[in-house]
Amino acid sequence: xxxxxxxxxxxxxxxxxxxxxxxxxxxxxxxxxxxxxxxxxxxxxxxxxxxxxxxxxxxxxxxxxxxxxxxxxxxxxxxxxxxxxxxxxxxxxxxxxxxxxxxxxxxxxxxxxxxxxxxxxxxxxxxxxxxxxxxxxxxxxxxxxxxxxxxxxxxxxxxxxxxxxxxxxxxxxxxxxxxxxxxxxxxxxxxxxxxxxxxxxxxxxxxxxxxxxxxxxxxxxxxxxxxxxxxxxxxxxxxxxxxxxxxxxxxxxxxxxxxxxxxxxxxxxxxxxxxxxxxxxxxxxxxxxxxxxxxxxxxxxxxxxxxxxxxxxxxxxxxxxxxxxxxxxxxxxxxxxxxxxxxxxxxxxxxxxxxxxxxxxxxxxxxxxxxxxxxxxxxxxxxxxxxxxxxxxxxxxxxxxxxxxxxxxxxxxxxxxxxxxxxxxxxxxxxxxxxxxxxxxxxxxxxxxxxxxxxxx
Length: 457
Description:
Elements: E1 2-4, H1 7-11, H2 27-34, H3 36-42, E2 45-53, E3 58-63, E4 72-75, E5 80-83, E6 97-99, E7 104-109, E8 114-119, H4 135-152, E9 160-163, H5 168-183, E10 189-194, H6 199-211, E11 214-219, H7 222-227, H8 229-236, H9 241-260, E12 265-267, H10 272-275, H11 288-301, H12 306-315, E13 320-322, H13 328-336, E14 345-347, E15 350-352, H14 355-361, H15 367-370, H16 377-380, H17 388-397, H18 410-422
Parallel strand pairs: 9-10, 9-12, 10-11, 12-13
Antiparallel strand pairs: 1-2, 2-3, 3-7, 4-5, 4-6, 7-8, 14-15
């Protein structure tokens, strides 16, 4: 499952043996020539890959290093199950369901059900910041690497669309896509979701007009969204508070796209905040080194949060997710560059997060978007006067008689109650996503941070 972006390079030595241009057909030949682990190391892409050798009884499974594509497994004395979703293994008496960690290979001997998991790759260490490149050159490199990342993800025989929130990250991806598709004589379609009083919708319209996309808006109602929370928890297989808040509008949007448009390959801006220290709490980082270390932590944990949300909301509705900010070459460069380049920086008297990214693409966007402060997706789909999470709080408050106490907030207890009612054998440990260096208790919304300024959103 997934996409191999460098398959054309891998294809060349075996072109006389291959019968198609599929990005997958070359894999058995690579494995036969180089072995499974070495083959996986050659891949530039997002994938969950399984290979079974009938003669030896050995089964090997690998997952990409960010964990964009999921892998779950469970084992007991008589059975071993592997699936792309935990729900496929639930209630089968396989025992505890586990998730294969990103960048790992699981090896199973099917004759005696002995297995082990080992890492084949990892992200650069926070101590690897060894590039001595001037800031201006880094700005240009970030630009070039992201453009190349978008370009190589455009190879598809299916129609391409792009989610557009009106925030910096999705706007940059949409602007690059629109430019590339225009050069091919094609028109990009962009999609936005929001409640009737959404601040995102306004900025998305401005970006769409600027880049000349065929822009589509899906206006949702609070009551309808609240009723979909159970569906979202079942689809995403998580009880994390901020993930469910953000997933609900996105899941509804992807459902709408799937039913009404031909676009099946959907680009999005996931991963940028983690890679470029983009969350508002990074303004409170004690030092650039602390921010850099936390950025790498966030990248390593993406598979539990934003990447999980993006994969399940798209794939769960028959769409294919594309993730330009999570490109291997882009990540390796940004993690290794001078940490001070990648923290909130002063510009024209204002401290902005993701300054290097803004400067790299400011000519692609309206100034009001290129220099718009960060707004959390789960909040900006609604009004800053009454954010989406407060609607959830009120909704849950009327249903406390059905909620079990798991030691969290009323909202998190409500989500976890639904989760436990839906899944029997899947009991993951999912740390609540919370801002660092901030005394906010158990509330993950950016609106409670001391650096949040309501009028800027």
